[in-house]
Design brief:
By secondary structure, the protein is of the alpha+beta class. It has three helices and four strands. It has a four-stranded antiparallel β-sheet with strand order 1-2-3-4, with no helix packed on it.
Length: about 130
Amino acid sequence: MIQVLLLCIVHTVTLRISKKNGKRSSKQNHICAQCGRQFIDEYDPPKGYSQEFKRECLEMYLNGMGFRAIERVKEVHHTTVIYWVKQLGQQLPDAPLTSEIPEVAELDELETFVKSKKTKSGNGAVLKPW
């Protein structure tokens, strides 16, 4: 057995490594003699975006910028931004149920079409021969 200073996830002391377990993805794998777990010398930093980056993208969305516009500016895929918006939406509390009818309601630019249209095309003016 070889005594080497490597850190197992469970045991953070000097370990006795029973054997090396080959290479996978250009990284040397080892097996801990105490717990039998496989581990590597050093791990990559966690992948993903920082919380600050996510916050900036969400602020852009809340300020009215579209998903694809955020994708072009921040160089992050638009479906990732959609996923972040959905995550944030799930954290928000549900809207309270109100059984009250408001006394004043505002209808802004409400137009409805009740009757059927008389002409099939054009603006409705009658065409006159010259």
